[in-house]
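Section 3.1: Structural characterization of target chains.
Under the original work plan, the team committed to producing a structural model for every single-chain target entering the pipeline before any wet-lab resources were allocated. The record below documents one such target. The sequence was received from the expression subgroup and is listed exactly as submitted; it comprises 306 residues.
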Amino acid sequence: MRGLVFDIERFAIHDGPGIRTAVFSKGCAFTCSWCQNPEGRNCEIELWYFENKCVRCHECLKVCPVNALSMGTDNQPHILIDRTACSHCGACVSVCCGRALVFDAKELDSCEVLEEVLKDRLFYEESGGGVTITGGDPLYQYEFSLEILNLCREHGIHTAVETNLYAPWPTVKGFAGVVDLFLADLKLWDGEQHRRFTGGDVAVVTRNLKSLVRHGAQVIVRISLIPGVTAIIENVRHLARYVRNMGEDVPIELINFNPLARTKYRRMGKPYHFDSYNSPLGKEELDVFRRIVADEGVRLLPNAKT
């Protein structure tokens, strides 16, 4: 089976135990404006423009068959992309000598993904690592993700998925038999706020999380601390309390805000709504949220991913 993958990161150490290969699949049901991987939200290949690599040869303008490219003016990128007109034919990419124009993803067969994963099998065995499918969200291209996971299991490789759990329960349940570890993202407790910022119903997420835990799956809950959105004391308290009330030893990992995603948004020609935040949360701010989780009686994992 073939699917869209926008990155395969080897020697990943923050997405599950040990040394891992992280496979980034395209597509997500949420529309979070702070997403660290905005190229993963849309399940279509998109065109990126790296202005710092552009040699101003203008060959791309000559070959575009639909005139989707034009020259920018002051305070704009040198090349502008009309994404509504772009047909993704690849003509501009093929003539771009500086690789300033590139596609953000590739269509790969699950066996091709496995081939990349197996290159570091020795490191998995020595470190207790494996493969993590993330994105985007692995549940979006669920058949493709399941095929990769099944192939990895056949080779004795530890499997993990990072997911927002926003899918019908039968889909989520289908992953339980082939996933050794779920990294489950919880974002907002309030239903109205959750729908406003993610576009999805939080009740679907919490029901699936509870069902997974009751199903016996190993789960780590992740809470990304987004300034002014999720990094709110009452929000983190409610989420921690919900995890505690599930009655199982489900740990929480707090993920610090990462401002570096703004570069991706610029390359994609999309607005970034967190430009005023130039740095992650400081230690004192993080300690406040760590104490909240601890006070609710939930095991807190070390804050490794920032």
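The mean pLDDT is 94.
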